[in-house]
Amino acid sequence: MAKKIPLNVKNGNLSRIISYIASIYGHPRDAIEQYVENSRDIYAEMNEDNGLIVVDLKSRTGKYPRVIIRDFGRGMSVEKMESLPQELTSSDKLKKINQRGQKAIGMLSFFQFAGKCEILSKLANEDYLHKLTLEKDEETNLFREADYDAQYKKMQDSYGTEVIISNIDENIIRQITFNRIYEHLQRKFSDDIREEKIRILLKEGKKEKYIDPEDISKGIPYPIPKIRTKYGFILFDLYLWPKDSGQKRVQIKTRGNLKILDDIALDSNFDCFPWNSNQVFGSIKYELLKPTPAKNRIVPDKKHYPTFVEKVKTIEKALAEEVRKLQSKEEEKRRAKMDNIVSQIFKEVFKELQLEDSPFSTPAKTDRGNKDIAGEIDENKKVPSGTKYNDTNYDSFPQLPIIRPDIGKPSIKGKYVALPTVYYKPFENEQKRLHSYRDEIEKVIYINDIHPDYIKAKQRDETRLEYSLIIVAKETVVYENQGVSLMELAEEMIKVMSIVNRKKLDFLKKR
Asked: Is domain 14-210 classified as CATH 3.40.50.300?
C-alpha cells in the first residue's frame, strides 16, 4: 500500500541548495533588477505613486567597487529583518496581486557576481537603522550564517531600505556599465515609469540620469479584439515598429497587470517569427496564467496554458504578414538610399574613366545626378520599374522613357544623367549562381536578391554599399572590356575598383 512521504533536506545540504538557486540569475543586471523589483513592490503595497528608487553604480568609482539600490518606502521592522534569512523559500507576495517579486530568493541574487550583500532598513517611527549582512564563504562558495544588528545605527529621520552589494568579482565589474544597466532597467520597468508608479535614478560618479520609459511614439498600433476563452479573456495591446529595433518584444502579463515574461519568445511555443522579429512589442494579458518560481517561465498547467497558446497562435499568421509588409517597405527605403549613393559615386567614376558611351541608362525625369547630358528622350525605349518578385511581364510595371546619349545633340533641359539603374529580383534556374547581370536591351543591372552574399551584405549599410559598388564595377568592366584576356579583365577590375574606393571616400567625407 502506497504512503505519502514528506520532502525534506538533510542537514548540511540546505546551504548548497540555496547557493545553487541563488546563482540562477545569469547576469549582474538581472540581480540588480531584483532589488529594484523589491523596492517597486514596497511602493505598490503602500499605494504610493512616483516612488523614488536610486541605483548607484560605484563599481567603477572609488577604491571598493559596489552597487547600491535604495528606496524611500516604509522600511522593514526588526521582526521582518530577523525572519528574512529563515524564509528564503517562502514569500507572502504570492498572495498579493500588486506584487511582482514572487520568487522568494530575490535578495540572494547578488550571489552570482558578488561576495557580500548588506541590507539596511528602518521604519519611520523607529530610532535605529537595522542591518542584515549576507556573505559568501570564498573557500566553499556557500552562504555563511547571516549577521544581524538590530541597532546598527541611531537615526531620527525616515530612511526606507538600502541594499549594498560589494566584494564584486573583478571580471564582472566591466559588465556593470551605466549604459547597459540603463537599457536593462528601462526595458524591464518601462510600463511602471510611464504610468508614474516609480521613478528610477541611475548614478555613476558625477553622472546621474532618470530612466525614461521606452519610446513608443513611432509604434504603429495593431488593434486586435479581445479573445474569449471558456476561462476568461485574452487581452492584446500590441504595436508594430517600422524596423528591427534590436529589443522590441511582447510581454506576457497576468492578474494585477503583473509581468510573467518580458519576452514572449522566451516561451518555446513562440520562439518564432514574428515574435522574435524585434518589430512587435506591447503586451498580452491572460489573468489565469501563473509564474513559476524560476525566472522567465509560465506554469505549463494542463488547463489554462494550452488555451493561451492555442488562442494566441490564431493571430500569429496575420501579424507575421503585417511585419513582412513593414520589412518590405523598410527594405525599399534602404535600397533607394543605397542606389542613390552608388549613382553619385559612379557619376564621378565615369568622369575619370572618360567613357565615350555609358553602359547604363537612367529613367528620365529622376533626380539621380545633378547635371544635363547631351542626347534626346527616346520615347520608344522603356525599362521596368519596381521590384515585383517572380514577375517577368514587363508590361505590368510602371514605365519611364530613357535618355539616349548622343554627343551630337544639344543638352536636354532637366535633371538627366546616364547612371546605373539597378533592379532586384530572385534569379532562377541556371542564373541562381550569379550575383548580377546587365540587361543588354534595357541597359540596366539586375541584382540577385536571394544570393547568399547579398543576403549577408544587406544586413548593414556599410557592407551593402560595398556590395553594390562591386556589382556596378563588375558590370562596367565586363561591358567595356569584351573580348579581352582574363588577365586584362582582372587588371581593369582592379583599376576601376581603385577609382571607386577613392571616390567613395571622397563622397563619405563630404557627407
From this structure: no
Closest CA to 477 of 361, 362, 339, 359: 359
Strand partners, 207: 204
The pLDDT, as a whole number, for residue 366 is 41
Give residue-wise pLDDT tens across range 208-222: 999 999 877 778 999
105 in Cβ contact with 21 (< 8 Å): yes
CB atoms within 10 A of CB 147: 12
Give the C-alpha separation, 135 to 141, whole Å: 10
Write the DSSP assignment of 210-255 as a string of letters: EPPPPP-TT-EEE--PPEEETTEEEEEEEEE-SS--SS--EEEEEG
| Sequence-separated (6 or more) residues with CB below 8 Å from residue 251 | 191, 259, 261, 262, 263, 264, 282, 283, 284
Crossing angle (nearest 10°) for helices 316-353 and 461-480 = 50
Q: Where are the domains of the chain?
A: 14-210, 220-314, 325-510
> Could you tell me whether strands 128-137 and 142-143 are parallel, antiparallel, or unpaired per DSSP bridges?
antiparallel
Of 348, 358, 341, the residue nearest 502 (C-alpha): 348
**Unique residue bearing C-alpha cell 514574428:** 274
Percent over 70 (pLDDT), the chain: 77
3-state secondary structure 94-106: HHCCCCCCCCCCH
Confidence of residue 179 (pLDDT cuts 50, 70, 90): very high
- pLDDT of 354-367, one tens digit each? 875 666 766 543 44
Nearest one of 11, 14, 26 to 111, comparing CA atoms: 26
ω before 426 within 30° of 0 (cis)? no
And the C-alpha cell for 420?
Answer: 546605373
Whole-Å CA distances, 457 to 273, 329, 418, 453, 498: 22, 18, 26, 6, 20
H-helix or E-strand spanning residue 331: helix 316-353
What is the bridge-based pairing of β-strands 399-405 and 422-425? unpaired
Lowest mean pLDDT among 2-6, 183-187, 316-320, 450-454: 2-6
